[in-house]
Structures are given as structure tokens and as C-alpha cells.
Design a protein that fits this description.
The protein is α/β, with parallel strands linked by helices. The chain folds into two domains: about 200 residues, Alpha-Beta Complex (Spore Coat Polysaccharide Biosynthesis Protein SpsA, Chain A), CATH 3.90.550.10; about 90 residues, no CATH class. The chain contains twelve helices and eleven strands. The radius of gyration is 21 Å and the shape is globular.
Length: about 350
Amino acid sequence: MASTSVIEDGRSCKDGDTPALSVVVIGRNEGARLERCLESVRSADYPRQYMELIYVDSGSTDGSCALAERLGARVVQIEADRPCAAAARNAGSRAARFELVHFLDGDTLVETDWLRTAVRVMRETGAACVYGHRAEIDPRKSLYMRVASLEWYVPPGPAALCGGDALFRRDALEAVGGFNESLIAGEEPELSCRLRCRGFSIWRSDEPMTQHDLDITRFRQYWRRAVRSGWAYAVVGVTCRAGTERVWRGRNLANVLEVSAWVGLVVAAVFLSEWRFLLALAGLVATRVIWIGRGVRPRVAGWRDALLYGIHCQFARLPILVGQIRGLWYLLRQRPAKLIEYKD
């Protein structure tokens, strides 16, 4: 007979088809976003007696811990000298009492039906990790938000990697040693690589999971986020050995070669006074923009957004290359990397 108390047997408690669930929210100075996140968990369609809420704080100075306690979360604080997401998620996993752990970033809102959906999909597929569709709360807030909202799309079904919002079996996390705390970015795909290498599967549901508040309104934020992505691409692509990560290494090389071709055409135009090279560069970039836009057109509102996304993918190659260089420098030096933060 299933246990009827989450206190008596925290690691196995369930009631019929409703297993006990630990929801771990991580954050640092999220302010009102954190309050909305915690309220969304409290309002989720999941029996409160079979769910615990944990907030892991990475050195906030805005009263986040007091806010979380007031909203019924158990608060865990970690050292703020290097407050990476990997360390926060590991701390939350260690503090969790139950076998199923769902991680959420503090700038998200969980959809009302998602927790039940995630548990059902995990049971049906046998996956060690399940996640769904993340969408931006207000993609029209800025051009940067509009293009970022298109990045969250992943085809449903078996997946190569997961993101920061996901449901995990804790035994799978423990089997691979949890998140890699040496990484300042890319900790989710790196963990996904190790999970797959140990025979665990990841499943992407087509159901709505979370709404996200990226809150990027200035070019400097956009640039730093792309640099951070480039750092992750380089480090994960070099260190992971599974088949999918070989594709990452190919994409890393493709980015370096394409930007090098741009630079080569500009240098040739300047030093040889042959401005036809600039026309060739413009033609190359325009062709790539249209090609990328054509690929995403079926899932966006119109050609305007499709071409905007294509322009973003081309322009972002520059800060991504900066991030790749920084990532490779980190691998060569093997010293703690400095956080690349893009939010205010």
C-alpha cells in the first residue's frame, strides 16, 4: 500500500499515480520574477501534500531568501564567490527529499498542468529527464527578446540534451555525479552528454512547460549572452565525447571558418582596393539569412520574424566567436572561469 505521508518516507512516498515531487527553484537577485515563479509553483495542479518547494539562493542582496520563506519554500543558501547554476542545482538536489526533482530557474513561471504532465511522460517513456516547451513571457518587449524566443524550440521526442527547466530522476543525477560545477555555462548539455553515455534517456514533450522572462532590452546584454553561449559551445564541444557533441565540434569549427571568411573578404577589399569582395561578403551573408529564415518560417508569425532570426544567427557569430576563444583559453589554463553575466 502506498504511503500517505510525505514525512514518513520522503524518497518513495506516492498516492496511486501521484509520486512525491521536489521542485527546486534557483535564483540570484530575481526580485519580482522570483515571487511570480514561486507563486506559479504553489498554484500548480499537483497535490500540495506530495510536493515540496525548495529555493536555492546564490548570494542575493534583494531579500530573495526572506521572500521565499514567506511563500513557503525551504531555503538553501550557497557561497556567493562563484554562484554558478550548476552549484545551485546540485545543492537543491542534495536538499531534496524525493526521488523526482524538477528544476526551475527563478525567472520562469511553471504552467499549471506541467508537473502532472512531466511525471506522466516520465512514467510512459522511462526517461531519466523530461522537459517541455519554454516560451518567452513577452517576446515583443524588444528585438532581442523576439529572436531569443525562437531559440527555445526543440522537436518533441527523444532528445540529445535538456535545458535548465526539467524533471529528473535523482538516481540518474547521482549516477553521473550531478552537474559540473566547474562550468559557468553549458552545464545542462554537458550533463546530458554524461547521462546518455551511461545509458539514460532524455525526452522532450511537446506540452507547454514554462514561461520565461529573459529581460534583455539592450545591445550589451544581447552581446554578453551570445559570448556566454560561445563559451559553452567551445567547452562542451571539446570535453564531451558522445556522438551528438561531435556535431557541436563541427559547428564550432564552422563558426570559426565562416567568421574567418568574413574577415578575409574585408581585408582583401581594404588592402587590394577591390570592393567586389565586400559585395561577395554581402551576398554570402544575405544568402545565409534567407536560408535560415526559410528554415524557421513554418513556426514563426511571418517572414519578418523569420528574416530577423536569420540576421540574429549571422550577427551572433561574432560574439559567439569571442566566447569560443574565451572557452578554449579556459580549457588551456584550467583555472576557474569568470562568470559571464548578461542580466542587470
